[in-house]
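Table S4 entry, Succinyl-diaminopimelate desuccinylase.
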Amino acid sequence: MTSQQQVFDAIDARRDRIVEFLSEFIGIPTENPPGRAYPEGAAFLEQALNARNYDVETVPVPRDVVAEHYPDRAEHPRTNVLGHREYGDGPTLHFTGHFDVVPAGADWTRDPYDPVVEDGKLYGRGASDMKSGIAASLLAVDALEAADVDLAGTITQSMTVDEETGGFTGLGYLVDEGYFAETDYCIYTECFDSTRVCLGHRGVLKFEVTAKGKKSHGCMAHDGQNAITAMQDFLGRIEEYRETLHTRTTDLPVTPPESRHADISTTMIDAGYSENVVPDRCTATFYRVLVPGESVSDARSEIADRLQATHEATGAEFDYDEIMFAEPAEVPRECTVSQTVATHVERHHGDVEFVVSPGSDDQRFVVNNAGIENCIVYGPGLLEQAHVEDEYVPVDEVLTAAKVMAATTMDLLGETDAN
């Protein structure tokens, strides 16, 4: 019987190789929006899986499906990549992660797509969020193979697109197409650092509201209807609503603790043509956060009530346009995959922190849509490194997460000797 230590030694022996792999992976600028370099990213992952003797399947997303969710990005092709390894009768363990990254932006002190290792940290856009999660799950299975671990069941690795803009054409599409129908356990390798087991996330509703008035010359404002004034009324109601939302809290371990309540923020506003024109349009964008127990449909109704109240108070008409939504998701701390991962995290780090994410992610598709309770988030990336300049991941975190994933796989799909 292969010991865990033999597997861990195989992981440590591959340190340089995984740094090289991850550096090349990060060097592909798979920025979303709009979906830049997705074909190159998918081809790189397909090649990586083929080199590891997975049964590889690429799943291109039809253009009309892309257009339904992202009408301004349908010209950018989207392909999800899957690899399967079948070891015999037994359960299916599915590792999944996204390979799109947010745009690098400015203020980097190094090239975001020319990764470097400094003081044990690998720098580059996507290092933590979350190409390191994909690298860790691949490394875990590499080590199991190298150590000739006797497994029963199937390991699936999926690499998806568009998580950063809702995931509807990525993991959501795979779930809709039935790719999780036979999944017993799922580990979503999103960044939360290797000391934590994430049980779920808050939800979100992103939407845009446009107040419609009537244009006029500023010297004859009485002939117009100022859309900014109408929006001011609505924004006042949103601030009152925000106070109400802050009373809706959850006992779940959302981190940071300051995020354990519902919320809404006005995030963008646009109006006006010239200093001497009363504007007939004012558009504002909002970010509504839902705690577990709330629903997107209820949030929509609450927004609609406030729009109606503003209409009655000002006479202005309003358009409501939804950008994206994600229902909250949660799984029990006691579920099998959670407890198994936690056991191995504890062996490496001591006390395990169970958390719920303050933001939404693709876990909801597996839990809410596919109905799989045994799905947790566990990955090496650091949450505080997501979307920042000079993003990095500690190389040791990648190795530790891979060890936890490998030991978890041994427990769920085979026999293990902890010595």
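DSSP finds eleven helices and 18 strands in the chain.
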